[in-house]
Amino acid sequence: MNPRTNNLVLAAAVMLAAAAMCAAATAVAAAPVAPAGMAIIAAGEHRPLFVLPNEPQTVPVAQFALDKLPVTNGEFLDFVRDNPRWRRSAVKRLFADANYLKHWAGDLEPGEAARTNQPVVWVSWFAAKAFAQWKGKRLPTVAEWEYAAAASPRRADGENDPEYQRALRHWYSMPAPAELSRVGAGLPNCFGVFDLHGLVWEWTSDFNSAIITGDARGDTGLDRQLFCGAGSAGAKDTGNFPAFMRYGFRSSLKAPYTVHNLGFRCAKDL
Amino acid sequence: MKPNQFLRRFLLAGMLCAYPALVRAAEAPVTATKPRPVDGTVQGEEKAVLTQAPFVPPPIQRTHATKVVVNLEVIESTKRLADGVEYVFWTFGGEVPGSFIRIREGDLVEFHLMNHPSSKMPHNIDLHAVTGPGGGAASSFTAPGHKSVFSFKAINPGLYVYHCATAPVGMHVANGMYGLILVEPKEGLPPVDREYYVMQGEVYTAGRFGEEGLQPFDQRKAEDERPGYVVFNGSVGSLVGDKAVKAKAGEKVRVFVGNGGPNLISSFHIIGEIFDKVYQEGGVKVTQEQVQTTVVPAGGSAIVEFSVEVPGTYILVDHSLFRAFNKGALGMLKVEGPENLLVYSGKEVDAVYLGSAAEGGSEIGRRIVELEAARAAAIRADEKIAGLTKDIQIARGKQVFLQTCFVCHQTEGQGIPGQIPPLAKSDYLMSDKQRSIRAVLQGLTGEVEVNGKKYNGIMTPLNTLSDTEIANVLTYVRNSFGNSGEAVSADEVKRQRAELPPPAANKFE
Hints:
The structure holds two protein chains of two kinds. Chain A is an alpha+beta fold. Chain A is built from six helices and seven strands, in the order H-E-E-E-E-H-H-H-H-E-H-E-E. Chain A has helices spanning 3-24, 73-82, 125-134, 142-149, 162-172, 241-251; strands spanning 38-41, 44-46, 59-61, 64-67, 201-202, 262-263, 267-269. The longest helix of chain A has 22 residues, at 3-24. The N and C termini of chain A lie far apart (44 Å). The model of chain A is unreliable at 1-20, 24-28 and 218-233 (pLDDT under 50). By secondary structure, chain B is an alpha/beta fold. Chain B has eleven helices and 23 strands. Chain B has helices at 3-27, 169-174, 219-223, 321-326, 363-381, 383-386, 390-409, 427-431, 433-442, 467-477, 490-499; strands at residues 45-47, 67-82, 85-92, 101-104, 108-115, 126-127, 146-153, 158-163, 178-184, 194-203, 213-215, 229-232, 245-248, 252-261, 266-271, 275-279, 288-291, 293-296, 300-307, 312-318, 330-336, 444-450, 453-459. The termini of chain B are far apart.
């Protein structure tokens, strides 16, 4: 057997083992059929970064479906074709800031800087929400997104996968690339979802409900109840820098904002 | 709490805070402004002059307070940390440390913080000069491609650190997000001839000091407070050679020293100078005179003043010396001018000093030499220590084999039928030890017969291996794969190597 075949067999074995570990997390109900392009995220629990001491330390996440890939420019083009009020020249400033789809060549023309297989960025929360509704879907909650994104390629509890955590920290400490990769280029996590890390930030339905105040140190202070969101207790895991960055990033946003490395994907109830 | 109860509370919380936030955003999406009471004490308006280290904006000549507009842009970029080493710095104003801001006590500062559209992260700024919650941090939290504006009254004079306070705050600071803001007292600072800006900070790289390439941030090292680099002004060598700060003999120099940290306290020292005056911790009073080394806390500062009397190069260090000599915390001040022999003579006598080793060496010296000779002889006599036993040679030779030989001869020495002759039970190998040594040194080309089969391939010379390595690997193959034979010594290899014809001249040289 040559080394390449060897690697392939090994990879297949790892993936089988991974599928087993993800399934093991929740082998309760019979697996429903996933809608096209979506993965079933088995029910489980999310441990929020910020919780009050007297609150439950975990948030239950019911089984749901999540897009395997972030929404692309190609898909968003279909959306604005069908929904003229979400075209760049027509959108209301109330719902998207002046940079909305700024990298597109025209209203119905993504152009060179926005290839159809790249994730759509420069979109507001309102636009993402409208897209999801148009698809008969919705945006994932922070809890759902964080729960799905905690899975590594090998296991559902990716926080206990040191190699994966190292890779994540590495990505979070690198600058945004000049040109985004196509969607689905990396390894899927054990639920079969791609690009939750390493490509773009993603909108969530309740992005500003679990708040970092903007001043990192105040978030562990006693007066956190003054601020909206998760309460006075400090972070659960002060070493989880990627999670801090995601919470921080979400907290810096307002719903009409658009950012060069912020896209989204959709979720659906089952 | 039952899940549905929890969910209700969760949703309620969402309605109480998330939803109004959306509505507020919808009412005034991008350029929200709050009405501000008029400050009767300020006259006029000006734009702050910002400078990058080691330079400092000129002293303020105004005798009244004014409104100062500060425009500071956050830029994330890959920059040089040391020769051949790059790091992704997050900066205030494009450089580390951030731009120096100089204002006057009583000024009203309108602070514009822009986060460049290409940024990956949101950022904010906490200026220690601000009196108010978070030092402005909560008011300046800014997503990529956005801008925040807030205002503060500079009530307290002094030299203050500013830094980013976004979670995880230590990482934002370690990545370069710190700088200094000087609030001059109303009466100003005494005049000097030169002013410079030097700020220390640590960088926590995954690789060790000097390891080349783009180095990612290492969270574990940051938690353990074990930086790969401790630098002045953002990189190794930022104040060295052509980039050294300069002065002329007889001049009075003031250095605004900051320490961004995020973890270490600096023991700031200039080799060959004494600080005539120190404004400890960046306050407005000269608190000490004639100081050799002053402490600069993480997230703190100091102002030092001194006259330079003698020309030459003065080295700025963190006197925690391994940081200076092994991690980069080193800068230079070059002073030009005529020599001042009254203050410093230079070397006046250069003579031999023999100490107790005079006249053929001391008793102790001779004894040491004798003992060392005895120890070396003992090592030579003991094969185990000297690494000469056959077993040790076989073990070491296996390492050489697995790096060099097995690709062709295969791990069990079986070779490849028709192409590479076997070493296992090989009559060719075992029948002539000296020929085997030559084969390794010179290679082997042309037809050979091994165990009754003919091979006609090319074995490349492996003369880059040392005599010891060749002796060990041959001892290994002669005693493995079913072979059994005597060891090959390094001396035998050495003799064969000496008899080789000189290598043909390389026609490309």
